[in-house]
Write a structure and sequence with these properties.
The protein is an alpha+beta fold. The chain has eight helices and 14 strands. Helix content is about 35%, strand content about 25%. It has a six-stranded mixed sheet with strand order 5-6-4-3-14-13. A six-stranded mixed sheet has the order 7-8-9-10-12-11. Strand 5 and strand 6 form a beta hairpin.
Length: about 325
């Protein structure tokens, strides 16, 4: 008798905890309030996994349909809310292949690659040049890199026939000519105008490396919640300024904004991109798109976005042993 009473109480307690966690998770990820920034920095499926575990264990105690219903609700919530599940809509799309980007609709595609290089210091001989060269990109966005390392990548890719620019710890490399550079001295983000050949079309390219994310996960500590809240605000201001400079200097021009955002797609700062830019992975991505940490990637903080004149055709995240980030490779079709 006492054992069955304990099982019922334990089961209902777990159901209640799972339900409360579900309400909190749905509210946190749908509204994204700043005071819950420390909660939403982790993917929704992390909290979903905890909620599922609670409801499954509750079923073991209760053998009640309610716990199974709650399990189903959690599964649907994770499926609808997880960024990683968005690629389900891209079933049938192909991933980028090593080598040249190829042709679509009779036009040569533009291949863009972004990689946080960790200053070539992830492990001994951590030069990712060969890994990058394998994909034969037209435009490369590099973060956490030294000027001499940017030149090394450019020489490896284009044998002295390409162009490149460096700014702070960022670098942009391209097979085409860079006709202009715009510098925002407030931040390490950089902007250049690339002249695509053979038609000579101008593409504005912005390489971002936003404020480093807070990694404090001590949710029991009030300082953790404060640090995440402030950290999010700093990145939002930085991205706003970077996009404002782009709008002031290249309004209406085809543009690519990519790099290390240090924020997942669910972060509210991404709303600054919506309306004018498409996320290449959302539009055309295949496979597991998370980029950090390379060994067990759980966050898609490295991204490539484009204006409507550049339509994403293929996109995927690619592992390299020479950085703690995965590379993102995306192919675009220039449209009128």
């Amino acid at each position: 008798m006492k054992s069955s009473r304990f099982r019922r109480r334990a089961g209902w307690s777990l159901v209640g905890l799972s339900l409360l966690l579900h309400i909190l998770t749905v509210y946190a990820f749908s509204r994204q309030p700043e005071f819950l920034a420390a909660y939403t920095v982790m993917p929704i499926w992390v909290w979903g996994g905890i909620g599922l575990l609670l409801s499954i264990v509750a079923f073991w105690f209760l053998r009640a349909p309610l716990s199974l219903i709650l399990t189903g609700i959690w599964a649907i919530t994770v499926l609808l809310g997880a960024d990683e599940a968005r690629v389900i809509a891209n079933l049938g799309k192909s991933a980028p292949e090593p080598g040249q980007a190829g042709v679509a609709d009779g036009k040569f595609l533009v291949r863009v690659l972004t990689l946080n290089c960790k200053h070539f210091n992830y492990a001994p001989n951590s030069d990712p040049s060969l890994d990058i060269q394998r994909w034969d990109p037209d435009i490369v966005l590099l973060q956490e890199v030294e000027p001499i390392q940017v030149k090394r990548v450019a020489d490896r890719l284009y044998q002295g026939h390409g162009d490149y620019r460096t700014f702070m710890s960022n670098g942009i490399v391209t097979r085409w000519r860079i006709s202009r550079e715009v510098r925002n001295q407030l931040y390490r983000d950089q902007q250049v105008t690339v002249m695509k050949q053979p038609e000579g079309a101008a593409i504005e390219v912005v390489n971002v490396h936003l404020e480093k994310a807070s990694t404090d996960l001590r949710l029991w500590n009030p300082d953790c919640w404060y640090n995440h809240r402030v950290n999010r605000k700093v990145r939002a201001v930085e991205l706003w300024h970077t996009l404002q400079v782009l709008a002031d200097t290249a309004s209406g021009r085809p543009a690519i904004v990519g790099g290390d955002f240090n924020a997942p797609p669910s972060d509210p700062i991404q709303s600054l991109m919506k309306g004018n830019f498409d996320d290449a992975f959302v539009q055309a991505g295949t496979g597991w798109g998370d980029t950090y940490q390379r060994r067990i990637p759980i966050l898609r903080i490295d991204q490539i976005h484009s204006t409507r004149q550049l339509r994403p055709i293929r996109c995927s995240a690619v592992t390299t042993r020479h950085s703690d980030h995965r590379m993102v490779v995306a192919d675009f079709l220039m449209v009128p």
